[in-house]
Structures are given as structure tokens and as C-alpha cells.
TrEMBL record:
<dbReference type="InterPro" id="IPR002912">
    <property type="entry name" value="ACT_dom"/>
</dbReference>
<keyword id="KW-0028">Amino-acid biosynthesis</keyword>
<feature type="region of interest" description="Disordered">
    <location>
        <begin position="1"/>
        <end position="26"/>
    </location>
</feature>
<feature type="domain" description="ACT">
    <location>
        <begin position="397"/>
        <end position="467"/>
    </location>
</feature>
<keyword id="KW-0520">NAD</keyword>
<dbReference type="InterPro" id="IPR029753">
    <property type="entry name" value="D-isomer_DH_CS"/>
</dbReference>
<dbReference type="Pfam" id="PF00389">
    <property type="entry name" value="2-Hacid_dh"/>
</dbReference>
<protein>
    <recommendedName>
        <fullName>phosphoglycerate dehydrogenase</fullName>
        <ecNumber>1.1.1.95</ecNumber>
    </recommendedName>
</protein>
<dbReference type="InterPro" id="IPR036291">
    <property type="entry name" value="NAD(P)-bd_dom_sf"/>
</dbReference>
<comment type="pathway">
    <text>Amino-acid biosynthesis; L-serine biosynthesis; L-serine from 3-phospho-D-glycerate: step 1/3.</text>
</comment>
<dbReference type="InterPro" id="IPR050857">
    <property type="entry name" value="D-2-hydroxyacid_DH"/>
</dbReference>
<dbReference type="Pfam" id="PF02826">
    <property type="entry name" value="2-Hacid_dh_C"/>
</dbReference>
<dbReference type="InterPro" id="IPR006139">
    <property type="entry name" value="D-isomer_2_OHA_DH_cat_dom"/>
</dbReference>
<dbReference type="InterPro" id="IPR006140">
    <property type="entry name" value="D-isomer_DH_NAD-bd"/>
</dbReference>
<feature type="compositionally biased region" description="Polar residues">
    <location>
        <begin position="15"/>
        <end position="26"/>
    </location>
</feature>
<dbReference type="InterPro" id="IPR029752">
    <property type="entry name" value="D-isomer_DH_CS1"/>
</dbReference>
<keyword id="KW-0718">Serine biosynthesis</keyword>
Length: 467
């Protein structure tokens, strides 16, 4: 990926325009530095004068054993990457975060306002996981810090787990295996089924639901699905108009919806009553989607022949003997049921998914650092433009993260207006707006003027100039 050079200015930075190697504090016009030469300038060509830093000046802290696939991508860019296997206690985290431009975390590191307040140079946070609850997204956005995650890299892993569960439930494999572990030979065929020709009902036909649809059809199942959106069917799957239609028809019901107020207890006593007698229920979405006491009742009465749960309303923060009544009051009842598969939220936990997460998040970080592209950001508006290349020596990319208040664009364009603006794009998300403009025929002094002009605007949160 062609790496543009970056100037970033943070609000309230008194040292702006002094000599510095920090990409998030300032720019300067020093003699060409050794690190700049190492950044790929061909000897003999006249180097550009404004060189605040090259990729080697970007400092990245990776915590919580981020997958090697992600580390490799960041190191290949020439960034300085410090890698730690664990998360850090808050005081050590604060100490370390003061210095870095990028931090990569998984779910254990809490990036609260208290921590982020100390992160004076931080440009971007990479959550090498699905969720972003561990980060104060609003504070980050208000301070121009982008946050990226990887919400869909484990879809296939979840879909495969569900396929395994469908067969396991249909053949009562969990129970037979437990019996054998206890020394009991119990060869039965009653109420054990092939899945060929059975109907799978998928609730939520998104990334996981649609993957599952393909796999289930390949094994001879008929697939129906219900979604709040009208979505194009894959293969011969068929969308049904209501949840009730799906529950009435399906032999296996599997849930793949997000956690929203509408999906809370989406499967409760009336929905279980609407299901076929002897059908199966699978939930690898969110723990709040099923009303578990109602499921326990439906299994005890024989209405539901089997269930697989991977997610629960309350889940422990660490591994250990925690799946008991003090975590969820019905836990012991659930554990006592036959033909129920209970797994500890492992739907997306595979080596492949971890690798895919590493690649997806690191690539998003590189795009953001080098080109200012925010596609996939969870807290900033998503803005993209094709990258600037070294063939465009007098181009600059201006990025202006600002408060979304009336009149900003007019003021920004008064500053950019004297220059040749090739492209400009702006978008907002709540109180925060992100503007990106590519300007051509700009010399060192022009870039300096643009940067200083934007910095002086009262709406500014962060100004970066890439060139
Ligand atoms: N068990 C795990 O380890 C694991 C791993 C990854 C994802 N998940 C969970 O799986 C779920 C699905 O993930 P995804 O990546 O497929 O999400 P997605 O956003 O791609 O798809 C969700 C689908 O649900 C639909 N939907 C939303 N509200 C609905 C409603 N009330 N009724 C019917 N359909 C509705 C949406 O329109 C969308 O098509 C999420 O809850 C996610 O958190 C679990």
C-alpha cells in the first residue's frame, strides 16, 4: 500500500510547527532525516521538504496477544510495534498510552475516558475482536480518535458450529457421548434422525445466517428464513413473511439476530408453543434473545426435543467454574436437561477467525494511518477516497475532523478555496464530522497555510495533512 506522509495536529498543542518526530503533534521543515530516507526516496530525486515523519515514526502498542497475522501487516509498514501478550493494569496502560499513536487491544483492555485522556498522541484504536464495549467510543470520537473492529471475520466459524449442532441434536450425540464417558453403552435409534429433507428456519439472514443457509442446503436441508429486511435468498432458500410462519414450519430453528430491544426474549413461551412438537432450537447469537426459563419448561414437556446454547444473558469474564446459579439462576436446571448442548460462547473462536480478525483490523489501521480512510470505523463517519501516490508529488490530502456545527464547510472552503481542490468529501455521525480533501499543485508553504488555517477554526478536533 502506498504510504502517504502524515501531519497531524491535536487541539491545544502549544508546540505546533516546532521540530518534532511525532506524527500526531506537529510538522516541520527539517533537513531530510535518515528515517525519511529509509522511507523509500530514490536518491537523486528532489525530496519533498515537509516531512514530519515516515511510517517508522508511528508507534503502535499491541496488547492481549493480538494474532500474528495482524502484527505482520503493521510491521511490514515499518511502524514501531511493541507487542505484549497480556492486557495491562490501568496505571501501566496510562503510562504506555501516552507515547503511542495506535493501540491494538482485544476485549480485556478497558479504554475509558480516564485512560484516553492521557493518550495525547493517539490517532486510532484497533479492537482485534468483535465487540467495542470496552472502549469509550464517544470520548474517542470527540477527540478525533478513530476506532476499528472486526465484526464479521468469524461468521463462517459460527455457521460451521451450528451445522455441527444440528446433527449433534438430531442424533442425541451429546447424551450418548456423556453416557459412554460414564461407562454406559446405550444404543438407541428412537427419535434420532437424519437431517436430509428437514427444514431449517434461520432467524436473521445476515452474515452468519446466510453462510449457514448455503451449508445447510448442501447437506440436503430445506431452508427458510425470517428477517426484518427483505433479503435476496441464496440457493433455493425462501424468506417467510413472519416469525410465526417460520416457527410453524421449521424442524430446526436457529437464531442469528443482533441484541436489540426488539430481539430481547424474542423466543419466549408463545413462540415456543408455536414451534413444531419435537423440534430443536439453537442460539449462537446473543443470550438475551431466548427466555431461558420458558425453554426449560418447553424441553421438560417434550415440546422441544433438543437445544444448543452458546450465549447466555450473563457470561463470566474469565474461564473457571462459573456456570452456576449465582451467574444465572436457572443454570442448574439447564444443566440437568437431556439433549442440550451448552458451550461457552465459542461460536467464533477458531484459529481461522483470529487470523482473519488480525488481517481485517490491521488493514483498516494501515488505511487510516496512511490514507485517512475511515471505512469500517465504529465511531467516526465512514469516508473513503482513492489513495494519493508518490506519482502525485504536489498533492496533499487534508483531513479535518471537526464538531458538526453550522457554517464549518464554508469556513473550510474559504481556506481551501485558494487552492486546486481535486476532490472533497464530508460526512457526519452525530456531533462529529469528517472532511477529506485532495488538493493539487500545493507547495510546502501552501500546506503549512492550509494546516494553520484549519487549526485556527473553533470547530476543529484534529487536522491531518497527508502528502
Ligand atoms: N456465538 C458467537 O461466538 C458469535 C460470533 C459472532 C456473532 N455472534 C452474534 O450473532 C448474531 C448475528 O451476527 P451476524 O454477523 O450475522 O449479524 P448481521 O448484522 O450480519 O445479521 C443480523 C441479521 O438480523 C436481522 N435482524 C435484526 N433484527 C431482527 C429482528 N428483530 N428480527 C429478525 N431479523 C432481525 C438483520 O436485518 C440482519 O440481517 C449477532 O448477535 C452477533 O453478536 C455470535
Amino acid at each position: 500500500m502506498a504510504s502517504a506522509k502524515d501531519i497531524a495536529q491535536r487541539p491545544g498543542n502549544a508546540t505546533a510547527h516546532s521540530l518534532s518526530v511525532s506524527p500526531s503533534t506537529t510538522f516541520h521543515s527539517p533537513p531530510v532525516s535518515r528515517s525519511f530516507l529509509a522511507g523509500g526516496v530514490v536518491p537523486g530525486r528532489t525530496p519533498k521538504q515537509l516531512k514530519p515523519f515516515n511510517t517508522g515514526d508511528i508507534k503502535i502498542l499491541l496488547l492481549e496477544n493480538v494474532n500474528k497475522s495482524g502484527r505482520d501487516i503493521l510491521e511490514a509498514q515499518g511502524y514501531q510495534v511493541e507487542f505484549l501478550k497480556t492486557s495491562l493494569p490501568e496505571d501501566q496502560l496510562i503510562e504506555k498510552i501516552r507515547d503511542v499513536h495506535v493501540i491494538g487491544i482485544r476485549s480485556k483492555t478497558k479504554l475509558t475516558e480516564k485512560v484516553l485522556r492521557e493518550a495525547k498522541h493517539l490517532l486510532v484504536i484497533g479492537c482485534f475482536c468483535i465487540g467495542t464495549n470496552q472502549v469509550d467510543l464517544e470520548y474517542a470520537a470527540k477527540n478525533g480518535i478513530a476506532v476499528f473492529n472486526s465484526p464479521f471475520a468469524n461468521s463462517r466459524s459460527v455457521a460451521e458450529l451450528v451445522i455441527a449442532e444440528i446433527i449433534t441434536l438430531a442424533r442425541q450425540l451429546g447424551d450418548r457421548s456423556l453416557e459412554m464417558h460414564r461407562g454406559t453403552w446405550n444404543k438407541v435409534s428412537a427419535k434420532c434422525w437424519e437431517i436430509r429433507g428437514k427444514t431449517l428456519g434461520i432467524v436473521g439472514y445476515g452474515h452468519i445466517g446466510s453462510q449457514l443457509s448455503v451449508l445447510a442446503e448442501a447437506m440436503g436441508m430445506s431452508v427458510i428464513y425470517y428477517d426484518i429486511l427483505t433479503l435476496m435468498a441464496i440457493g433455493t432458500a425462501r424468506q417467510v413473511p413472519t416469525l410465526e410462519d417460520l416457527l410453524r414450519e421449521a424442524d430446526f430453528v436457529t437464531l442469528h439476530v443482533p441484541e436489540t430491544p426488539e430481539t430481547k426474549n424474542m423466543i419466549s413461551a408463545p413462540q415456543l408453543a408455536a414451534m413444531k412438537t419435537g423440534s430443536y432450537l439453537i442460539n449462537a447469537s446473543r443470550g438475551t434473545v431466548i427466555d431461558i426459563p420458558s425453554l426449560i419448561h418447553a424441553m421438560r414437556t417434550g415440546k422441544i426435543a433438543g437445544a444448543a446454547l452458546d450465549v447466555y444473558p450473563n457470561e463470566p469474564g474469565a474461564n473457571g467454574d462459573y456456570f452456576n446459579a449465582s451467574l444465572n439462576q436457572w443454570a442448574e436446571d439447564l444443566r440437568g436437561l437431556p439433549n442440550i448442548i451448552l458451550t461457552p460462547h465459542i461460536g467464533g473462536s477458531t484459529e481461522e477467525a483470529q487470523r482473519a480478525i488480525g488481517v481485517e483490523v490491521s488493514e483498516a489501521l494501515v488505511r487510516y494511518i496512511n490514507q485517512g480512510i475511515t471505512l469500517g470505523s465504529v465511531n467516526l463517519p465512514e469516508v473513503t477516497m482513492r489513495s494519493l501516490t508518490l506519482d502525485e508529488p504536489d498533492h496533499a490530502r487534508v483531513i479535518y475532523i471537526h464538531r458538526n456545527v453550522p457554517g464549518v464547510l464554508r469556513k473550510v472552503n474559504e481556506i481551501l478555496g485558494n487552492h486546486n481542490v481535486d476532490k472533497q468529501i464530508s460526512d457526519s455521525k452525530g456531533d462529529i464530522a469528517y472532511l477529506m480533501a485532495d488538493v493539487s499543485d500545493v507547495k510546502v508553504d501552501d500546506i503549512k497555510d492550509i494546516s494553520e488555517g484549519l487549526e485556527a477554526l473553533s470547530s476543529r478536533i484534529l487536522t491531518r495533512v497527508l502528502y
